[in-house]
Amino acid sequence: MNESIVVHHAVTGREDGPVVVLSNSLGTTMAMWDANLAELEKRFRVVRYDTRGHGGSPVPSGPYTIDDLADDIVALLERLGVRSAHVVGLSLGGMTAMRLAARRPDLVDRMVLLCTSPYLEPSSAWRDRAELVRAEGTQAVDAAVVARWYTAAHLEAHPEVKAAGAAMVAATPAEGYASCCEAIAAMDLRPDLASITAPTLAVAGAEDPATPPPHLQQIADGVARGRLLVVDKSAHLANAERPEIVTPAILAHLGAAQ
């Protein structure tokens, strides 16, 4: 296990608001939350960060584990003097949030898990992707990744989204991306679900090929207090493709705790 690191982060919104942590997906930066940020900032102290190996965060040598990624959030909250927070995570960010909530229930108030899974098989596919990226760089996978992030109709209508997404993936350091792939390959959070007490909203993209709705249903059924929202006409980055649905759902779920 690696030591926790000082991740690149930003704190915006209401200084006196409840804290919400946004945890990004594989191959992205904190910019993946841009479509949701303005509304969140009106009511919350928003803590965004780049997962280790991504964006402006350090790139320690891998492999990483989900525990490493959870430890990074613990360290970030400690540095910010935050005793508990809502946590919103998508894909890898959701996996990190689940592990954090299972290990440190005192730190997690409410949780929104988007387009994620407690277990993604086959693990060999993730190890193969890590090997490819280490050999050829993240540009070797950027087109295939973005094709899973959004529906085909959305990409056709918004070529600028396709280009920006591919550039984001290609800019991700190969070691960071590959090491996070290895974290997913080794991960099995299914035994953790029953111990998660934070009220949890699981959000699925109806057309998500990476983590289809049954993965989110498993989470909603497995945690103590979970419910499922399936968002039509959206793929893996449901928050970016359908912010008009996802942002109000996040606000409603987190607002119930205030």
Automatic annotation (TrEMBL):
<protein>
    <submittedName>
        <fullName>3-oxoadipate enol-lactonase</fullName>
    </submittedName>
</protein>
<dbReference type="InterPro" id="IPR029058">
    <property type="entry name" value="AB_hydrolase_fold"/>
</dbReference>
<feature type="domain" description="AB hydrolase-1">
    <location>
        <begin position="18"/>
        <end position="243"/>
    </location>
</feature>
<dbReference type="InterPro" id="IPR026968">
    <property type="entry name" value="PcaD/CatD"/>
</dbReference>
<dbReference type="GO" id="GO:0016020">
    <property type="term" value="C:membrane"/>
</dbReference>
<dbReference type="Pfam" id="PF00561">
    <property type="entry name" value="Abhydrolase_1"/>
</dbReference>
<dbReference type="InterPro" id="IPR050266">
    <property type="entry name" value="AB_hydrolase_sf"/>
</dbReference>
<keyword id="KW-0378">Hydrolase</keyword>
<dbReference type="GO" id="GO:0042952">
    <property type="term" value="P:beta-ketoadipate pathway"/>
</dbReference>
<dbReference type="GO" id="GO:0047570">
    <property type="term" value="F:3-oxoadipate enol-lactonase activity"/>
</dbReference>
<dbReference type="InterPro" id="IPR000073">
    <property type="entry name" value="AB_hydrolase_1"/>
</dbReference>
